[in-house]
Amino acid sequence: MRKVVIGGVGMTPFGKFLERNLKSLAEEAVSLALKDAGVAVNDVERVFFGNAAAGVVTGQEMIRAQSSLRNTGLDGKPMYNVENACASGSSALNLAWLSVASGQCETALVVGVEKLTHEDKAVSFGAFAKAVDLEEPLPEGMTTGTGSLFMDLYAAKARKWMDETGADASDFARVVVKSRHAGSLNPHAQFRNETSVEEVLASRMVSDPLTLFMCSSIGDGGAAVFICSERYAATRDIRPVFIRASSIVSAKADGSGELVAVRAANAAYEEAGIGPSDVHVVELHDASAPAELIHYENLRLCAPGDALALIRSGDTGIGGRVSVNPSGGLLSRGHPVGATGVAQIVELTQQLRGTAGARQRPGAKVALAENNGGQLAGDSAVALVTILST
Question: 370: domain range?
Fold first, then answer.
């Protein structure tokens, strides 16, 4: 397998943009990524397009890439439509990486785009509710009725984790405070106002123990990444960021074995030939605040049982031992699901280039992205872990 380089990145602001469509978001993200790489549309050999919910929210099915990119100059090129719940963008990157690493092509463009806002919020919530096996019974004892199935699922997991660890709601609020601070420094973030533990706890209860500020919001956005072989990068003025590993796993139907995030992380560490202590900056899937704490242990950023000590220490803040979600994460940067995995790579590339501004983790050389999606047998249905380095 050949070495693969991230040559250019770009993304739109994330937020609620009722007036924008998939084309508008995709066109902006593509233009920015190609400009950043210093290449033109003719330099792109293949396109991998991540989108999860257009069929439900906008009605666009089957040819989402071809329709969304028809005005970009990319028309006529091989395009792959990738749908894999909240991990759609990361899955598109995984396939693009495989194409370049295997020698099938020299360059590829990864685009993640999502339009989730709708005049009827029930449509948006309904899109998320389809990311489960509709014939699988809900977990025993789970309360429902908030209108957001996944927040009810996350709340049930949070209550179980609180019972096991002794965590309380203020620990989840600390995650949000850290996230909002990072978001305040990110010009592309959906939420850019800082907050306090008290304000987080006082925000409206969504699904006990999750208050409104502890839940990622519905939003729109696009992100794009231009990747190429190391050989191709050497012919251009490209400052390389290398994709060291890209792993993907799915949940076991009987719920057995380790969690998908754990298995994906272990596979990526092995592939990259590094360990968790080598990682300087992480973007992970914090669709709810408790998820960040749980992933500290899933990704082995701390020893089992030490997640509470880690968040309380401040070591996961900007400039900390391992900076986690310096973009603001899903909670503050936003979570337009098909764009999320690609946006993680945009942030980590900027961190490794040293161009993240006030969000910069000093001396960042190794970065990790974790993105999961859907629900199956009590676990996320799919998880991907990508490791980057200079």
Answer: 142-215+246-389
Query: What distance in Å separates the CA atoms of residue 254 and residue 311, rounded to the nearest whole number?
Result: 32
Model pTM?
A: 0.97
pLDDT of residue 129: 82
Domain-located, residue 262: yes
Whether residue 185 is found in the same domain as residue 234: no
Which CATH number goes with the domain that contains 374? 3.40.47.10
Q: Cα-flanking dihedrals φ and ψ of residue 377, to 5°?
A: 55, 40
Structure tokens at 150: 């996944």
Least confident stretch, 101-110, 133-142, 229-238, 363-372: 133-142
227 and 171 in a single domain? The answer is no
Phi/psi of residue 102, nearest 5 degrees: -80, -10
Do 305 and 199 fall within a single domain? yes
What would the pLDDT profile of 71-115 be if each residue is shown by its tens digit?
999 999 999 999 999 999 999 999 999 999 999 999 999 999 999
Residue 40 lies in a domain: yes
| Active-site residue, 86 included | yes
Whether 111 contacts 65, CB under 8 Å? yes
Identify the bridge partners of residue 23 per DSSP, sorted by sequence position.
none
Return d(Cα 331, Cα 195) in angstroms, integer. Answer: 12
Domain count of the fold of the chain: 2
